[in-house]
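Example record

One chain of 75 residues, shown exactly as stored in the release files.
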Amino acid sequence: MRKVRAFLVSAALVAGVSLSLGTAPAQAESIRYVYYYYSDCQNGGQLGIQWGWWTSYYCSYQSYGGSEGRYFLYA
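Predicted structure tokens for this chain:
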């Protein structure tokens, strides 16, 4: 399970970086990370603000059927 989680986190990070390097305007929202827990998503958003990566964020839950789902950090 740890290997799967590490892979998902790495894949989400790569996706976030590749989206941020696209042709979208600087103020456009994009997915920055994917989390299992809402509190982790909030902490990640706050760290991004503290480190100057973005000025605002929000966390959105997406269900994949049953009780399985993830929190997406948009900034």
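Notes: The beta strands are 31-35, 58-63, 69-74.
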